[in-house]
Structures are given as C-alpha cells and as structure tokens.
Design brief:
The protein is α+β, with helices and mostly antiparallel strands. The protein folds into 2 domains: 66 residues, Arc Repressor Mutant, subunit A (Orthogonal Bundle), CATH 1.10.10; 104 residues, Arc Repressor Mutant, subunit A (Orthogonal Bundle). Helix content is 49%, strand content 12%. The strands form 2 sheets. A 3-stranded antiparallel β-sheet has the order 1-3-2. It has a 3-stranded antiparallel β-sheet with strand order 4-6-5. A hairpin with a 5-residue loop joins strand 5 and strand 6. The longest helix has 18 residues. The radius of gyration is 19 Å and the shape is elongated. The termini are far apart.
Length: 198
C-alpha cells in the first residue's frame, strides 16, 4: 500500500489521533492501539517529522510518545509540556522507587505495580510543608494525585488503588532517584516542621 493510501486508512488516522491527543500511548491501557503504532512506526515518523516531531516507541516499557524536534522552525502542537510541582515530584520519586523495586524483584509475576493512597501519603508526610496534616492531605495531596492521573503517571483502579505506569520510567531514570531525593530534602527543609528521612 502506498504511503498516501496508508495515511488515509482508518488505522493510521486513529494511531496518529491517539499520539496527538495524549502525551503517551501505553500498551497496558490499549494493546491494540500500541501495536498499531508499532506496525505503522515508519509511516507515522515520516508524517510527524514534517511537523517537527519524532515518534519514540519504548517497547521494553510499553510507551509510545511524540517528542519535539528542537531545531525545527515550527512544531506540531500535540501536547503542551507538563511541569511537575514539588509535591508531584516527590510522589513521582516514590512511585519510581516502588516500580524499580518491583520489576527488579526475584518473584516478579506481573509488571503492574499497585499502590494505595496510604502508601503514597506515608512517603510524602515527612515533606509536608504545612503544619496541619489534614489540610495538606485535602488541599495538596489529592490535587497532586489527580494531576498525576491526568499526566498518565498513575491510573486509578476500581478499588481506589493506583497502578504505576511506565511513564514514571521516562520522567525519572532510576539512577537519578537518589539525587532528586536529596534535592527534595533541601527544597522542603525550610518549609516543614518535621524531620526529613535519612
């Protein structure tokens, strides 16, 4: 099939739409969509390269995404860059640690890593920059979790728990976690009345 015909096909249009609509396409969320992007990688890359973007497929983690080509005169507006605030960053550090520990464990049966509100809360508590714990939880914690769901870092399960997605691997390479934790301790040191963890 010629490239022009492929571009007009429903499968190509749907694959391109998914990449443009969301920052990431996850195999764990939609295997058929991820496989379509893999199958059409050459054509999609050619299509998006004309708009200043490059398709990156990370088969090991099951993530497909578009990245901007920095030196291009104009760029496709597939997604605004999202910056994590300090609390979201701390939560991501916890999620990345937990995912790494699970995947490198001896008895790994599934790649899925599930955490609860309490798991995340207990890790974040020492970084609390407000004096009233209840206010911190309602005003900052819940908003941060909601934002990370929107950014596809976690997905919420029917029982209220969260599955950590491979997007975490992209945001924070594991070898940088300890460095970022030190930065987080310094950032929150003057903003909390609690001792930070060693």
């Amino acid at each position: 099939m010629a490239f022009e015909d492929i571009k007009k096909s429903r499968r190509f249009v749907e694959a391109a739409r998914r990449l443009v609509k969301g920052r990431y396409v996850l195999r764990s969320d939609n295997q058929a969509a991820f496989e379509a992007i893999e199958d059409l990688q050459i054509q999609l890359n050619e299509y998006f390269s004309l708009q200043g973007a490059e398709l990156v497929i990370e088969a090991s983690t099951g993530v497909a995404r578009l990245v901007e080509v920095q030196d291009f005169d104009y760029q496709v507006s597939f997604s605004a860059k999202k910056t994590l605030n300090p609390l979201e960053s701390v939560i991501c550090l916890f999620l990345r640690q937990r995912r790494h520990e699970h995947i490198t464990g001896k008895d790994v049966v599934t790649e899925s890593v599930v955490v609860t509100d309490d798991d995340i809360w207990n890790f974040c508590l020492p970084f609390n920059r407000q004096k009233i714990v209840k206010r911190f939880r309602t005003d900052e914690f819940d908003v941060a979790i909601s934002s990370l769901r929107e950014k596809q870092v976690v997905s919420q399960n029917s029982d209220g728990t969260y599955t950590i997605t491979p997007v975490c691997d992209i945001i924070i390479p594991h070898d940088l976690v300890s460095n970022y934790l030190e930065e987080a301790k310094k950032y929150f040191a003057s903003r909390t009345a609690k001792d930070l963890p060693e």
